[in-house]
Structures are given as C-alpha cells and as structure tokens.
Amino acid sequence: MSYLETIGFFGAFLTGIVIGLFGGGGSILAVPIFVYLFKLNPVIATSYSMFVVGSSAAIGTLINIKKKLIEYKTALIFTLPALVSVSLTRRFLIPNIPDTLLSFESFAVTKEMGLMLFFSSIIILSSVLMMRKPRIGVATKTTTQKNYGLLIFIGLGVGVLTGLVGAGGGFIIVPALVLFARLTIKQAVATSLIIITFNSLIGFSSDVSFLKIEWDFLILFTALSGVGIFVGTYISSFVRESTLKTNFARFMIVMAAVIIFKELTS
User: Fold this and answer.
1) In this structure, what are the phi and psi dihedrals at residue 230, rounded to the nearest 5 degrees?
2) How far is CA 102 from CA 5, 170, 206, in A?
3) N or C, where is the chain less crowded by C-beta within 10 Å?
C-alpha cells in the first residue's frame, strides 16, 4: 500500500466524520480522495462516492431516528423528484457527455475536468447560501411558511447534481431545508441524511450494470467512513448550531479551492 493510499483510507474515516457533523459534504472529500489519491477516473469516482455517501448516510439516519430530529414529510417531498432525476442522469446524460468539452490552442477542458470544476462551483454557491445571514425584521406568516414547491424543484436539481458528480447533495440540501422548509440546522442535517441515503444508493444502482466495481476496496472504504460517522454524530451533540453552520461553509470553500487548484495546474 502506497503512502497516498494510506492517506486515502484515513480520508475515508474523515469523510464519515464530515457526514455525521454536517449531514452531507461527504462527497466533497470522497470524490477528490478517489480521484487524486487512488487515481480513479472521475466517472468511477463519482459512482463510488454515491455508494460510500449513501451507506454512511444510512448509518447516520438510523442514529438520528432515535433523536427524533427527522422531518419525514419534508424528506419525502424532496426525495421523490431527486430519485427520478438521478436515475435519468446516470443512465442517459453521463454516457453522452463528450470527452472534450472545450478546446483552445494549448488548453482543453476534458469531460473529467469539466465535472470536477462544475462540482467546485456548486460547492462555492452552496457555501455562500449557508453563510448568508437571515434578514432581520418582524416575523410574519409568509416568512415562516414552508415552500414545498421550491423544494420539489431543488430536489430535481439535486438528483441531477448527484448523477453528475457523485455528490449526495447535502451541501445543497441542508441550506435548502433551512431556507425553504424552515428547519433548524440540526433538523436539516438529520433530514438531509435520509434524503442522501436514497438519492445516492439509487444513483449507484444505475451504474452497477455498466461499471466494473471493485467491491473489496469499496466496502473497506465504506466501513471506515461508517466508523467516522459515529464519531461525527457524537461530536455534533456538543457543537452550537451557529458554529456548525459557519464551519460547514468554511470547510466547503477550502475544499472547492483545493479542487480548482488541482484541476487547473494538473
């Protein structure tokens, strides 16, 4: 085992901690680990990421059921459209993306690079939404209503995102649940885990028929992430909501910067 692979397996443990703490964001670590440390093709990396994130999120969901933090109606409304779009994206969109997206005199944007840069841009957008301070004013009925229509639309988008870059979508789901379903950050984290579970595992199942899966490697990585999620969930019980929200956003920005740097300098 090379030193890069050793770091990669430690990263699997950190991936679980991130999911347990933030209700998402595991793919922000998992995809770069698969691509840069284990040298996997980004399409395969996104598929593996869906399995790891989905399995780890399932563990977190079982933990959170006992805490009674999950908003099941909101989760169902968000999940159904996401399942449709993630399946269609993995089946039809990914195989038809051209190998070269853009080409200049001495520079070409490949399919793999395009996926990673798109991944980074979504991370940055989500972190900005998460860090934005709520408007201060008199509370009214309209400011406390849940916007389920918008959640359905975002669910469709999250499914496409999951299919494209292997992200469970927690870094979009958590801000969306806070902003449009009026959940607290800890309710949003818990609810996002059950959404991520179904979204990611359905996406992965779409790949099993046409990708060669290295099950021994994938199960080991997933097991280490599963241990990490217990640690992350435990730590989250001692962290204030405002601190959790701010640190989640900062973490996303750092990871996006790392990915962009790697892609543009490789």
Assistant:
1) -65, -40
2) 32, 30, 28
3) N
Q: What is the pLDDT of residue 139?
A: 36
Question: Helix (H, G, I), strand (E, B), or coil: what is residue 6?
Answer: helix
pLDDT over threshold 90, residue 172: no
CA 259-263-266 angle, 5° bins: 130
- Burial class of 237 by CB neighbour count within 10 A (0 to 12, 13 to 18, 19+): exposed
User: 3-state DSSP call for residue 100?
Assistant: strand
Identify the DSSP state of 91: I
Tokens coding 71: 């908003």
Residues across the chain: 266
State both tokens at 57.
């999120």
- Which stretches of the chain are DSSP H helices? 3-22, 26-32, 42-67, 72-88, 111-131, 141-144, 148-165, 170-180, 185-205, 215-236, 241-265
Specify whether the CB–CB gap between 31 and 165 falls below 8 A. yes
**Rounded to two decimals, what is the model's pTM?**
0.75
Sign of the alpha-carbon dihedral angle for 217, 219, 221, 224:
negative
Identify the residue whose tokens are 């990421």. Answer: 49
DSSP 8-class letter at 24? S
Q: Is the pLDDT of residue 124 over 80?
A: yes
Q: pLDDT tens digits for 204-255?
A: 887 787 778 899 999 999 999 888 888 887 887 787 766 776 777 787 788 8
CA–CA dist 155, 152 (Å, integer): 5
Which structure tokens are listed for 82?
Answer: 């996401």
Structurally, how many domains does the chain consist of? 1
